[in-house]
Amino acid sequence: MEPMVITMAREYASGGSEIAQLVAATLGIPLYNKELITMAAKKSGLTEEAIAASENQRSGSLIYSLYMMGNTLPLADQVYILQSKIIKELAAQGPCVILGRCADYVLRERPNVLRTFVFAPLPLRIENAKAREEGANLNEKALESTLAKHDRARASYCSYYTEGRWGEAKNYDLCLNAALGRQACADLIVQAAKAMEASQTE
Q1: CA–CA separation, 140 and 138 (whole Å)
Q2: Structural contact between residues 17 and 107, judged by C-beta atoms closer than 8 angstroms
């Protein structure tokens, strides 16, 4: 049986990253987020800064880029393809939690993948964003703008590479409101993962 993999997409400052950490710690499995940037940098020879920056650069669609390419794909597409390969390799190695980067889509043909999405009410997200270094000195209006910008970027990333809709419930196995509490959300994800794994052995 394929190892259990939990993917998580999430709204910016929803608390999804912290929930993923709790899930990984509870199950005793690795969590991959920024580690994917480091791995891609080592494989490509690019700097981590270049990899991270490329994740925010989109134009057209990947299908169009593949059709129109000469000898070289745009850097962002090269990074996506490389990270997708790394995600598949990590999934094959053993159970893990993978944050973002369209991992749910990358692993769409693989069994034993629990696809999750975490969202949260705006007041909670603003509160979370204030606690971050980049949001500490911003007023509420500026924070709302920052949240919207990050969400647009994530939605754009998803539609660019998957032609799917980011955050649409039917694209996930489990959508959770972080207002339930981080531990409660983590517990629900763990229960769902165990239930999915058990169903695979029946």
Answers
A1: 7
A2: no
Ordered per-residue pLDDT tens for the chain, 202 residues:
889 999 999 999 999 999 999 999 999 999 999 999 999 999 988 889 888 888 766 555 554 444 444 547 788 888 899 999 999 999 999 999 999 999 999 999 999 999 999 999 999 999 999 988 777 788 989 999 999 999 999 999 999 898 789 999 999 999 999 999 999 999 999 999 999 999 877 6
**91: how many CB neighbours lie within 10 A of its CB?**
23
> Letter for the amino acid at 31?
L
CATH class entry, domain 5-201: alpha beta
Report the sign of the C-alpha dihedral through residues 114, 51, 160, 10, in that order: positive
Phi and psi based region of residue 60 (left: phi greater than 0; alpha: psi -120 to 50; beta: remaining): left
Characterize 36-50 residue by residue with b for buried, 16 or more Cβ atoms within 10 angstroms of its Cβ, and e for exposed. bbebbbeeeebeeee
117: amino acid identity, one letter? F
pTM: 0.89
